[in-house]
Fold these 2 entries.
Entry 1:
Amino acid sequence: MGKEYLGEFEELVLTMVAGLQEDAYGAAIADEIETRLKREVNLSAVHVTLYRLEDKGYIKSSMGGGTKERGGRRKRIYTITSAGMALLRVMKETRLELWKMVPQLKITGI
Amino acid sequence: MNVNPGPVWVLSILRWVCPDELHEAIEGDLFQRFDKDMKSFGEKRAKRRLLWNALRFLRGGILMRNTFSLHMNQWPMFRNYFITTFRHMGRNKINALSKVGGLTLALFSFLIISLYVHYQLSFDTYHEGYDRIYRINTERKESGRFEKYGIAPLALGPLMVGQFPEIEAFTRLDISNGSHVRYNEKVVSCGVFPADSSLFDVFSFSFLQGNKDGLKKPGSIVLTRSASRNIFGDEEPMGKLLTINNQEEIFTVTAVIDDIPRNSHFRVDAFIPLEREALFTADNIVSPVYFLDRSAVLYVKFRKKNSAGLFEEKIESLLDRHVNKDERAKAGFRIFLQPLTDIYFDTAYKYEFTRKGSVLYLYIFIVLGVFLLVVASINYINLSVADFTGRSREIGVRKVMGAGRTQIAWQVILEALLFCAAALMLSSLLLYLFFPKVLSVLEPDLRFEMLIDKNLLFAVSLTLFLLIFFSTVFPAYWLATSHTTQDLKGVSGSVRHTTLGRTLLIAQFAISAICISATFVISRQLDFIHTKDLGFDKKNLVVLSMPEGFTVAKMRSFKQQLKSIPGVQAVSNSSFRIGGGYWKDWYEIESEGEMKPVELHEVFSDDDLFGTLGIKLLEGRLFNADYPADSGAAFVINETAAKVLGWKDPVGKRILTHPEEKGKWEGTVVGVVSDFNISSLHEKVQPLVMRLPWQRDYPEYFVYVRISGDEEQTVAAIKSAYNEMVPGYPIDLQYVIDFYNKHYERENRAFASMQFGTTVIILVSSIGIFSLSVFMSLRRMKEFGIRKVLGANVFQIMALHVGYFLRLALLANVIALPVSYWLMKGWLDGFAYRAPLNAMTFVSVMAISFLLVVVSGGYSAWKAASMNPVDVIKLQ
């Protein structure tokens, strides 16, 4: 993984971009996080994170279509780059490695 | 999205804040959110959430994504602005010089003023935790009046520190001090003050040698650096032995501290341990003698800030335990706290140990500083508007070539910055060169390095910023918004310019008028002070203060010795010191056949006093040494006393004092002398009764010597006579006139600075009028030409041109003079004796401002009026 490092929220947003595919844009990602993780997120936080990820080269963006509920404003659709995909995979594997170190049957708290 | 999403302003802010490429998607997402919120929460809440969501976008992560390249594009233009500015300065030298000159003068004075004000405000702030230090003051009823004292009973400090844990430390400083120290055979004058060893816990003085324990042992003395140098020179001071005021006790030097900073309310050369203690009893607060004798200056330092408020109540309960309420109430005794930093500026308390600043003069200086900047700013605005109107073609061409409003504004601002920078550099240089002069006139304690202080630099740069802002905002706005076509024709400079220009000019004139009249009134008052008949002859008079323990016999022979000096005309000793004060005592006087008690100021003196001082006798006779009975029974009063006591025919009236001594001090008034003023003219002459000395053991200590001829030689002879009489005591000899003038030091300094400030203001406005009138005459050249052709003569045209400025000056005077009348009346009310304000003052102020206008506008008027009309009319 080298020096590359993602914060928890960045990782979450990156995963969402990968998961939502053609439907990955700011408001949708925020909605999805809220419904799936039951976690309040602020739209601006999602946007800033997306820009940062784009700066780092893990996602790229292009303008999509506008809808009526958006007052005709176009969406900025994000797609994950191969660098981003690789990073996600590495992160997942490292997590699994670490998880294996935890003794599974130990009962704590007694 | 069917519903209007609410406040548009948020969205426009958002549009302005967000980078263009991101904005659309952000706004879309916000609307989408809003749409969803509408369905789940209803309109009201959705709107609120939209507002909140939108505001959350005002964050660094978004703001910093804006590229600043747009602004960067202006940089190449800046070079061009510089070039045009310099070219233009070269072409229009008068205007450029006036701008730089005016700004330099104003900034120069402003720097001085801010230095002074900063110094004044910095008093006592150098102590660590200075905002937790307070002085404990007391209030007592003294002959029916409540008097505030800067001292508190000795017992109070130790009592309080035992009771109140919120006090970190306290220290007492005894005001009965030593005046000189002796080291081997060397006697050096040195203010030695007894203080508690905790002095160094309350105040932060830096130790050069020794440490905070320096005052812990009895018989130790802590010197300041310069006291140590005066006494020991280059010798090692630690452990050396000293005596104080020729007394037996020997003190050992245990520490040397750095000199007490100049911005301290007290000045001390050395400290010794305070060894007096007293109980906290009713006696010690009720009896004036005990109170004064058993009190000292008391400072406390709290552990936390703002502990003082509650503390005063707590003290009350502490006092209750020692002296009951009734007795305290009878003495009118109360304790109150005063923050350390207020001591210097607050009104003076009795027996206060401090130097005093003056808030009034501080305000005057601040106002003067603001005035200076306002005048300079107005000057700059008028000049730069005039200048830019002359350059309207340049502006027009810039606009045609595609300059935006901001770019024009930038050009104006940049020029102002350039001028200000030049002026700032010049004024700093001037300040550096003239600093010795500033010191001698304004405040000898100032140091050039004081300029380098972060608060001061901040204040100065803020002011500079404001100055630049106000000087550029109008010109920048006009030039940016004027019509390009008019610019190109060179006819801009429409009405609105002159309306504001006129208002500014009036303001400038008004400020000058106020300053001129203030200078006038102050100088008249000072003149009045210096020439007023004081009732005695203050010239060629010296006063010596004899040391303690000087006997009557010695005094007699000393006076004889002085009289034998050729330059000495008369010698006399008395109980008061000119510039000091009188004793006070209760007398009984005859009033409508009865004896009535009354408190009077009293003077004890020998029979020569009136002759020596040159006090005039109005009625009756003076003391006569040939009548032995005079020593107890003859009283001489002054005019004011006769008036206050209601005696039409005072000579022969009965008067007595100290009735318990059974008629020892009973007699009649034998004479009335004219009033004589021994303190400043801020105070009225007091009712006074004079008699011959009443104690035969000790003489009255103040010896007045009237001298003539060669002053220096005579004074040298007096000094050697003194040294022979009391070897080992440094002589305390002063010229009475110096003493007297010292009272007006503040006024003199204020006047000197006021004079300087006014001169600068007048100069700056004259420069402005001069340069503006040159400009206006050029613009009206064609009009003047036509007038001339139609038969106007030189004088008429000059009157027309100067008249414009004169009208404004008149209006300004009408506004300013009542204001300055009101201000100056307030100032004069501080004096008991004052030069009356009269109409002449104000008429001359007006005359001066008209004269200024005529002089500074006259040159261009004459030049304009004496041109050949052919030259200007054909010019197109």
Entry 2:
Amino acid sequence: MKEAASQDRQGGFDPGGLRRAFAILGRELAWLDNAATTHRPEAVLRAMDEFYRKHNANPRRSVHQLGTEATLAYEGARSKVAAFLGASAPEEVVFTAGTTAGINLVANGLARWEIGPGDEVWVSAAEHHSNWVPWQQVARRMGATLKVIPLKADGRLDLEAFHKGLEAHRTKWVAVTWVSNVLGVENEIRAVCEAAHAAEARVLVDGAQGMAHLPADVQAMGCDFLAFSGHKMYGPMGIGALWGRRELLEQMEPMIYGGEMIARVEDGDSTWTDVPWRFEGGTPHAAGAVGLAAAVDWLRELPPAAHEHEAALARQAAEELAALPGVRVWGPAEGRLSLVSFSVEGVHPHDVAQVLDNRGVEIRAGHLCAQPLLRRLGVESVARASFFPGNTADEVRRLVEGVRAAQELFT
Amino acid sequence: MNQLYQAKLLEQAKQPHGAGAVPRGTEDAEAINPGCGDEIRIKLSWTPEGTLERLVHELHGCAVSAASASLAAKRLEGRTRKEIEAISAAFAARLGRSGFEEEWGDFQIFNGIERYPARIHCARLVWQALAQALARENQAGR
């Protein structure tokens, strides 16, 4: 491992140094499942630990000292996340349980009231189930049609087909992923938003796979909503955020009713407190928010070379896997961000993953929660290796060797 | 290295007993592994005496699910419905739990599968389809 780490130092980036921030990587495992969840650096764990050890109280409720500290920590985390996204104000950031919760909130709390029979909702063919099923269900319930932005042969969005299919006043919502969790390609969000807005449709972006790898700037994206998860960007599980334009958040209905989201409760009806707190009914995951803010700090410190390194590993893996007979690599040849999905002829992806696991290489296998996309690719499941800047060229070598071993075992 | 992939499992998986085409719509039952999307469709045929003649399965799945389907077909053919139900229950009590005794023969390749909890679903797939097929036949009064 040490030798491999020093090999990787060319280019001025030292993955070995970065790895030391992750206690769990002290185990001799090559963690190539970062797209499912990253690990958390010490700074994130420490921030959460300190919240519980030093400032624990139910935020936004109590006048006592600890209550004040907990509120400051929780709202401070919101400000930090808002600044990271380029939001106009902290109030545009809603803390959620994760990407899925954020998308469901928008689909059911806002979109469903704006969609009627004969209207259209668009998703792209590359969506994760979490950005497909909520829209599919809202469209079904409201008598609208779900339309799909097709992909070109290289896995990128076919924007020409999208432009042709868009219809002003009929197309109401467009839900699109920033980065595909299967193909590893960054979508042209700005172009999608411009076309959608020209047709007076709204756009939600699933940011789950982008946050750890690309600079997030909601103004540059031009979208109306951006949903993401903490745990895919070195933060805790169970926390995420939804950024939305203030005027749209004001129109959105809360989906979770209860404590601390109301202005006044009468016997028969209630009014809501301000945005964004009206969407955060119940005791919030304050330690999670604090951990997410620490993850944001940690991400900000990563040098550009770190992202170049993870992309280089994905490129190397794609090239070396594609060179094996019987292995097919999915996604574009150019512009792959940090993951590679592949199929091995005659070997089921689960079996590939299990053989790799026996060699201490951890990858994901299955439908990757993207059955509509996999159906279009003509497969039921795939294997996927996904990288972070602490991975090494040696781990890519172990991946490729393991795939070769699986081929030998099964064919 | 490959505790799960013993020679016997690979042997079953490479040439599964009972594998055949079960076109969609002609199956008695199907089962899907929601974790990976794997899918099995099965078709049962019975002798006039009421014993299982063939369990044909078309599987889109991994080596573990293929080996399990193969062993199930071998074990169950020639048995009555009642015997099949008893074997199914006995299988369920052993897989990932008490493990398979010597009399279960090659089923012992699944002993230790509890160390790979994600794969228990794979070994169970054909049995889920079977339970559904039997329930349907019962409902139809056959």
